[in-house]
């Protein structure tokens, strides 16, 4: 699902409002900014018009970049650098690797 920003919601709502006023008075639009969802109640023809307009709006897709490094250290190296993982986590760290 693509998220949309407030400017896009405002533009979409304005266009819908003018289309709906011409069509009939029972049209409605609900905007949920927390999820980026727009719920529209209108005639079938107006919904089809709106479906054709939606791809014209630029959508922002939020992305997250995660960078991780996994290191395997022997007990000697940990002692050399002064890190005692047992004290940090409370979990017994094996001194030998299988």
TrEMBL record:
The protein's name in its UniProt record: NolW-like domain-containing protein
- Give the organism, scientific name: marine sediment metagenome
């Amino acid at each position: 699902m693509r998220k949309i920003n407030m400017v896009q919601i405002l533009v979409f709502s304005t266009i819908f409002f003018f289309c709906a006023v011409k069509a009939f008075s029972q049209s409605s639009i609900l905007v949920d900014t927390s999820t980026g969802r727009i719920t529209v109640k209108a005639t079938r023809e107006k919904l089809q018009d709106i479906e054709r307009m939606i791809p014209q709006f630029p959508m922002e897709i939020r992305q997250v970049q995660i960078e991780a490094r996994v290191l395997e250290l022997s007990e000697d190296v940990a002692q050399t650098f002064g890190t005692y993982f047992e004290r940090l986590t409370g979990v017994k760290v094996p001194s030998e690797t299988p």
